[in-house]
Amino acid sequence: MKTPRLGVNVDHVATLRQARGTAYPDPVAAALLAEGAGADQITVHLREDRRHIQDRDVRLLRQTIQTRLNLEMAVTDEMCEIALGVRPDMVTLVPEKRHERTTEGGLDAIGNRESLVPLIQTLHHEGIVVSLFIDPHEDQVRASQALGAHSVELHTGDYCLARRPAERAAELRKLADAGRLAADLGLIVAAGHGLDTRNVVDVAALRLFEEFNIGHSIVARALFIGFEGAVIEMKAAIARGCAEGA
Ligand code: PXP
To answer: What CATH number corresponds to the domain at position 180?
Structure first.
């Protein structure tokens, strides 16, 4: 398997900007630096409350970046309309709760079947790749494939939060089992949420993931060593994991 793609999520550059209502720091500038440092994709989550990324950012990213644009969004008519206007390369459908600090769990591909089917079909029809951000559970993977998704992004949050070795190993096993099943079902397999240069190594070593979407830890590290350095470090950590798992 090739080295996985790194999707750099620039949401938290916008978080810093929105904290003061300034024009800086600009997530679009960060995206261009990330690409220069080897990012394979730029990921943004346009939240319904617009707490970080703004509509303007998504439009400008579409016009400027040279790699792929992955738009994370909730399953709503408003977001569907925006996606059809912007035409990202990929849409990742995520659950969204207004008061959560960040995306707290995966999308329920079983319970939301009725709203997901028409949205996935509409996006497919327009040539936009659709990924579902789900928990690493067999029934969610099977449901995603049945709904016609091209890709699943497995939520790595529980793995990243696990502190005790046994708990961490159990969470890693869930990612491995769900990732293997998704690959066997012909889905593109991605992972993300809470990953950093340490915990990504064991996930990359599974050699099941074609793509990682990583934001918070890269933006945090960029404060100290710069955006390009932070992206280069993350690419190196992923490559190290892949080499360990080979
Ligand atoms: N993937 C998805 C679907 C997400 O919702 C997020 C958070 O916006 C990420 C990846 C990135 O997570 P983090 O910022 O913790 O790296």
So the answer is: 3.20.20.70
Q: Which residues does the annotation mark as catalytic? A: 45, 72, 193
In terms of residue numbers, what domain contains 75?
A: 5-245
Domain count, the chain: 1
What does 112-160 look like in DSSP terms, one character per residue?
THHHHHHHHHHHHHTT-EEEEEE-S-HHHHHHHHHHT-SEEEEE-HHHH
Q: Which ligand 1 atom sits nearest the alpha carbon of residue 194?
A: 15
pLDDT tens, position by position, 189-246: 999 999 999 999 999 999 999 999 999 999 999 999 999 999 999 999 999 999 999 8
pTM exceeding the 0.90 threshold for the entire prediction:
yes
User: Length of the chain in residues, anyone?
Assistant: 246
Mutate to test the pocket of ligand 1, among 72, 130, 211 (most ligand atoms within 8 A of CB): 72
102 pLDDT above the threshold of 90: no
